[in-house]
């Protein structure tokens, strides 16, 4: 028998093999080929570049934040050098007392701490609330187009540019017994002594100085809002109040939240203004920062470090709660609304449709 050779068979087979290779080893009707894996070298190179770029920031944070925090934690575990009650001798080294400095906060000796804690919280809530309202009003005024707007903007921002200590001295003259404040109200009020009037003096001076900061950040948010949005609202018949509540406030909310967060963290660390305006060791205005400074100035570094650590934890928790409740609630990392945000929008939409 003569074996028959098909010359086209090899070409057909090779074509089948080439099509099979091009299709990733599967038939055209089969599942798509898996995506190619990234090269490990490129990923590791990007990670190294990212670490290199972030390393200066991490180094600064380590020197400025982490290292002092660790030292404060260590110092808070030691007591005050002096007479050792066990031996009766004077010791030049600070004894290790463990968590005794923190335990004293919750004991009878902690009344001064809780008073300072209350003053700090009261000043923070009051001043930040007033600064937010006044700052938004300032931003709306500075955003309007009118003659002399540049002069108004400069005059509004001047208080924020003045150093805190200088501002406190200025207000100390105003709140003097023969100062301008008493001339205006027509009564003789001792603003810089113990009492509620000293708290009012601190609040007024703090709001006057830092409200322009919130106004400046809100103004930056107002300037990126398109004018077409307001023109469309006017065509729909929206009033000025309705435009502010439904357009201005939601669109400026990110900038406003950042301003409020910064001011809250700054107010929790309030020190210079009440210290210079009212004075040290005044129970009505003493804050946690003033308490820690007073303990350190009297060579009680252990309790001072404990107060500083507690203040650090307080500020950290406030910042964490603020960011988690008001920051990540808005959008995901990819910019899509969260389910909570989406449910709010659907509920509002159904209400508008039914109305």
Question: Any overview of this molecule?
Answer:
The chain has 355 residues and is mainly α. The protein is built from 14 helices and two strands. It has helices at 7-22, 40-75, 100-105, 111-143, 149-161, 164-174, 180-185, 196-222, 227-235, 240-268, 272-277, 288-297, 301-326, 339-354; strands at 82-83, 90-91. A two-stranded antiparallel ribbon has the order 1-2. The longest helix is centred in the first third of the chain and has 36 residues, at 40-75. The model is unreliable at 1-29 and 328-337 (pLDDT under 50).
Short description:
By secondary structure, the protein is an all-alpha fold. The chain has helices at 7-22, 40-75, 100-105, 111-143, 149-161, 164-174, 180-185, 196-222, 227-235, 240-268, 272-277, 288-297, 301-326, 339-354, and strands at residues 82-83, 90-91.
């Amino acid at each position: 028998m003569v074996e028959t050779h098909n010359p086209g068979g090899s070409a057909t087979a090779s074509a089948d093999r080439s099509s099979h290779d091009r299709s990733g080893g599967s038939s055209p009707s089969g599942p798509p080929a898996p995506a190619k894996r990234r090269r490990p070298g490129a990923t590791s190179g990007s990670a190294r570049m990212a670490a290199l770029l972030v390393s200066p920031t991490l180094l600064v944070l380590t020197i400025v934040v982490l290292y002092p925090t660790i030292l404060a934690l260590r110092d808070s575990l030691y007591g005050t050098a002096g007479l050792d009650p066990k031996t009766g001798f004077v010791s030049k080294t600070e004894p290790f007392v463990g968590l005794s400095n923190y335990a004293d906060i919750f004991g009878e000796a902690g009344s001064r701490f809780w008073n300072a804690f209350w003053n700090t919280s009261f000043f923070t809530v009051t001043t930040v609330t007033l600064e937010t309202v006044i700052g938004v009003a300032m931003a709306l005024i500075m955003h309007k187009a009118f003659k002399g707007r540049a002069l108004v903007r400069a005059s509004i921002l001047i208080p924020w540019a003045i150093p805190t200590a200088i501002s406190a001295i200025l207000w100390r003259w105003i709140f003097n017994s023969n100062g301008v404040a008493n001339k205006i109200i027509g009564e003789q009020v001792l603003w810089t002594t113990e009492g509620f009037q000293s708290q009012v003096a601190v609040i007024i001076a703090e709001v006057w100085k830092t409200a322009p900061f919130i106004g400046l950040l809100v103004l930056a948010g107002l300037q990126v809002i398109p004018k077409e949005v307001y023109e469309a609202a006017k065509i729909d018949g929206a009033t000025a109040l309705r435009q502010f509540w439904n357009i201005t406030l939601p669109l400026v909310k990110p900038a406003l939240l950042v301003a409020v967060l910064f001011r809250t963290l700054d107010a929790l660390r309030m020190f210079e203004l009440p210290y210079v305006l009212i004075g040290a060791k005044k129970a009505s205005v003493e804050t946690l920062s003033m308490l820690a400074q007073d303990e350190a100035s009297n060579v009680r570094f252990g309790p001072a470090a404990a107060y500083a650590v507690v203040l650090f934890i307080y500020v950290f928790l406030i910042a964490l709660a603020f960011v988690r409740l008001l920051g990540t609630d808005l959008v995901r990392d990819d910019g899509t609304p969260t389910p909570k945000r989406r449910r709010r929008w659907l509920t509002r939409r159904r209400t508008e449709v039914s109305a």
